[in-house]
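Escalated from tier 1: NDP holo job.
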Amino acid sequence: MDALIHLSSTTIFTDCSSSSSSSSTACLLHFTTTKFPNTISRFNLQFGISNPKFPKTIITHCSSSSATAIQVDNETAATVIDGKRVAKDIREEVAVEISRMKDEIGIVPGLAVILVGDRKDSATYVRNKKKACDTVGINSYEVRFPEDSSEEEVLKHISKFNDDPSVHGILVQLPLPSHMNEQNILNAVCIEKDVDGFHPLNIGRLAMRGREPLFVPCTPKGCIELLHRYDIPIKGKRAVVIGRSNIVGMPAALLLQREDATVSIVHSRTKNPEEITRQADIIISAVGQPNMVRGNWVKPGAVLIDVGINPVEDPESPRGYRLVGDICYEEASKVASAITPVPGGVGPMTIAMLLSNTLLSAKRLHNFR
Ligand SMILES: NC(=O)C1=CN([C@@H]2O[C@H](COP(=O)(O)OP(=O)(O)OC[C@H]3O[C@@H](n4cnc5c(N)ncnc54)[C@H](OP(=O)(O)O)[C@@H]3O)[C@@H](O)[C@H]2O)C=CC1
Ligand SMILES: Nc1nc(=O)c2c([nH]1)NC[C@@H]1CN(c3ccc(C(=O)N[C@@H](CCC(=O)O)C(=O)O)cc3)C=[N+]21
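Tier 2 regenerated the structure:
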């Protein structure tokens, strides 16, 4: 190194095009040198000139100072919010409670999962939920219906599970085939067993001050749980939720509001969404658009919760695709103070919350504390 350089600020630009498996990162550095302390120089650098011995060293061509190599020691990186680890902790906590319940009152919680049609992703989710139930000691009951089955058949099974005392939670995997009326089916789940929290009565109570839902939807609950477990304050903060679906965006906004955040909702008709997200201390994104939230949509120090699960083509991956979130991780993680990865962020928490809701239901139905 020819000159000692004090980095005063860093701006990172990444090519976040959704399909590229490797992206190039350019870095605009503002720094002063000891040789030229009053000069602030700007250099356009290309990352990735890797010397494994000096991974943080960038080689560049500088004309206004004698520097040829820069040590980027103070590059800020966000805390990675490890949903996979937290979900494991929660599964262990749930397992302890389930075994205590079994020992003390001889009850084992049961979860019924209804899957209609043959979507591959839905089948995978259901399989993962069953596996998770097995690991904590929840009995799972799975019913599969062919794509062309009737709404009445599904309703009949829901009614059967409503009356079955060994079932404490009922989950209807979404989306349903288009010929079925989702409202009718979700309304049929009795609210005491609505572990997904999708029944309008549970959502209505979530929206009302002074009312308590019996269950909170798993994905938004998982987002808030991550914030709590990482000691991230919510009260008085500005939160922006991107997406307003019944299952994620809308209940996430309601939950943040219940936690005393000031909440804005961005959706597909929002003009200049980046101006709104840039004001946020906390962003929860649930859109389904790969890498939509760029680094420059994010206020420095913001906390980012990425719900999006988007498959993008990747010939190098064994499945031929890989999962990315709604947030351009590479860019945003350099601006944020904390961020959830995809995979390994919110996804595992959704399943952990489902287990936790099923335990809660069994405890409540059997008056077990
Ligand atoms: N990690 C997990 O556990 C889970 C992940 N997911 C993932 O989360 C994502 C969202 O799921 P879900 O809520 O069911 O999706 P929906 O398609 O039901 O909702 C998407 C929302 O995003 C909004 N939206 C779409 N495009 C834009 C845009 N360009 N700018 C701003 N807002 C936009 C839509 O707006 P509008 O209302 O105007 O149409 C809508 O409110 C998906 O990737 C899904 O796979 C879902 C559930 C659980
Ligand atoms: N009634 C109903 N309830 C749901 O909760 C529900 C639903 N329907 N329909 C579909 C969405 C989607 N969803 C996910 C759950 C876990 C992961 C998950 O565990 N993801 C892993 C990756 C899994 C992989 O690698 O394929 C992760 O993010 O690390 C993702 C998505 C629940 N949903």
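The longest helix spans residues 83-105.
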